[in-house]
Write a structure and sequence with these properties.
The chain has 268 residues and is an all-alpha fold. It has one domain (6-264). It is built from 11 helices and no strands. It has helices at 6-29, 44-52, 72-89, 105-116, 122-142, 147-150, 156-170, 175-187, 205-225, 235-248, 261-264. It is globular. Bound molecules: iron/sulfur cluster (SF4). Residues 101-102, 147, 152, 155-156, 194, 196, 201, 204-205, 208, 255 line the site of iron/sulfur cluster (SF4). Iron/sulfur cluster binds at residues 101-102, 147, 152, 155-156, 194, 196, 201, 204-205, 208, 255. Its EC number is 4.3.1.17. Belongs to the iron-sulfur dependent L-serine dehydratase family. It comes from Rhodopirellula maiorica SM1. Keywords: 4Fe-4S, Gluconeogenesis, Iron, Iron-sulfur, Lyase, Metal-binding.
Length: 268
């Protein structure tokens, strides 16, 4: 609010959420092969059809009437993340949150929360986004959001931590529980390398966002439903650990495509 009025901030938060939703919907609609030469098939439209039994030809995403599989919520989170990252890989519009390669984690967690809980309102969505942003700023200030400096822990790891905090906040977590959720979200991404096959943000990036989103939900629930905010690793300590790990990480694992999957998976 140093730079903008409260109304402007609310309006821009609406725009961010609208753009995130749009990327999910576009990702569920667009079929075919992703550009770049790896011949990666877009999976989101097929998963959507399997989950709902229908094609996405309506204005907004439908939910199935009977969800027989109790774990299918996880599949929806996966779907939302894949949809956003397939859009990113195809040059579609996504919200850089905190980077384009990790753009699917936050929308997937927020979309799952918003779609499966009928009581979610505009303020809850804003609280989620504000909280996630505040956590992201800590990483930016005290470490880095760049995979070239930190590996994927600085992209998907940070997105996971941000989403975990956002979800913890709208679940009614205390500041200590929110901080705990953010810490858990990063603690179990420490050391995550960046090794995109053929230099394209497709493999492992697209699936990795789905894994990051599910992990964020797990972190938030662990912190809020089964914790009281007390924990031995603070968020500040885990951010510093991420920074040190990133500094120590060999450059071939930092967005150079010279190590890891990038050299072991030549052709998909
Ligand atoms: S592997 Fe690298 S390019 Fe892919 S999402 Fe992670 S940081 Fe981004």
């Amino acid at each position: 609010m140093t730079f903008r009025s409260a109304e402007e901030i609310e309006h821009e938060l609406d725009q961010i959420w609208e753009a995130m939703n749009h990327s999910i919907e576009m990702g569920c609609r667009h079929e075919g092969i992703l550009p770049g030469g790896l011949n990666i098939q877009r999976r989101a439209p097929g998963i959507y059809k399997k989950l709902t039994g229908i094609s996405l030809d309506t204005e907004s995403l439908a939910l199935p009437k009977d969800r027989i599989d109790p774990l299918s919520h996880i599949d929806w989170v996966t779907l939302f993340a894949l949809a956003v990252n397939e859009e990113n890989a195809a040059g579609g519009r996504v919200v850089t949150a905190p980077t384009n390669g990790a753009a699917g984690v936050i929308p997937a967690v927020l979309a799952a929360f918003a779609r499966f809980d009928a009581s979610v309102d505009r303020q809850a969505i804003h609280t989620f986004l504000r909280t996630a942003s505040a956590i992201g700023m800590l990483y930016k200030r005290n470490a880095s959001l760049s995979a070239a400096e930190m590996g994927c822990q600085g992209e998907v790891g940070v997105a996971c931590s941000m989403a975990a905090a956002g979800l913890a906040a709208v679940m009614g977590g205390t500041p200590a529980q929110i901080e705990n959720a953010a810490e858990i979200g990063m603690e179990h991404n420490l050391g995550l390398t960046c090794d995109p096959v053929a230099g394209l943000v497709q493999v492992p990036c697209i699936e990795r966002n789905a894994m990051g989103a599910v992990k964020a939900i797990n972190a938030a629930r662990l912190a809020v439903l089964y914790g009281n905010g007390e924990h031995c690793v603070s968020l500040d300590k885990v951010i510093e650990t991420m920074r040190q790990t990133g500094v120590d990480m060999q450059s071939k694992y930092k967005e150079t495509s010279l190590g890891g999957l990038a050299v072991n998976v030549i052709n998909c």
